[in-house]
């Protein structure tokens, strides 16, 4: 039996996350993150028939920026503060023998361009340009297990307070009116997850840069959360 397989991407993700830093570590944590899956021209629109009857979809994707970095049998998950190693198969780390991932996302809409179809999705944890290998419907009576155990991630991550001053609030409102709706909510939800690497936590006062959409978001850590200090256009 062959152990080598070849897969072709069926489409690519358009996402506000332009770099790995800042992407939530699980789907559904940042509900304001709207993304689009642009299906390839070789995928006919008829392949989406009746998909609108499902509220959520499973996406199988490639960790395309990790392919050349290999994998590790034991990793340090951020949820454990980077202080303890677990087996890679007890984690959702991108450093896997086969760099593929799985995310469940809400289906918000479908539209068709001249030569391809587009799925409008939400709450995703996917980098812009992520290749998608497959789509499957989320079926609640088999996919939902309320009594399941979550191991060392048995509770949601803590939420941090995110703030900015009044001039920046006005600037954000202008950006939302200019084509980036829900930017304030997206920014709050992304920073509330604490995107910093575990080894940098506790370094209050340090300034960080985070790319969202076409902007570089500059923020600093404080005792009780994060303060956005500037928004730079890229």
UniProtKB/TrEMBL annotation:
Example GO molecular function: tRNA (L-threonylcarbamoyladenosine(37)-C2) methyltransferase activity
Superkingdom of the source species: Bacteria
Keywords: S-adenosyl-L-methionine
InterPro entries given in the database record: TrmO-like_N, TrmO_C, UPF0066_cons_site, YaeB-like, YaeB-like_sf, YaeB_N_sf
Ranges of residues in domain TsaA-like: 7-147
Pfam families: TrmO_C, TrmO_N
Similarity section: Belongs to the tRNA methyltransferase O family.
Descriptive protein name: tRNA (N6-threonylcarbamoyladenosine(37)-N6)-methyltransferase TrmO
Natural source organism: Proteobacteria bacterium 228
Upper lineage: Bacteria, Pseudomonadati, Pseudomonadota
Gene from which this protein is expressed: tsaA
